[in-house]
Amino acid sequence: HYVSPSVWAWRQKRVLKIREGCDLMLTLLPFEARFYEEQGVPVRFVGHPLADTIPLESDRAGARAGLGFAQDTPVVALMPGSRGGEVGRLGGLFFDTAELLL
Question: Which domain of life is it from (predicted)?
Fold first, then answer.
């Protein structure tokens, strides 16, 4: 398992079990390493493999052109989640809401 659990975001007490069963936690983000270190978990920040390839500033005109969107038309992104359960639970609600907006 490469990505460390997001115990810093919610249910922080889970870090106690992680500390008991973990020889070394590898983290993608520097603040995660600090959190684990403060909790006594052996940790090493290794970085995110895509961190240097994703631009910090977006090219809106280029993105719109690449997606075939007009430069002056509003765009709404529907993002109900990344997990199948989230999409299943929230997808219909997102589409219903989008219909109301359009």
Answer: Bacteria
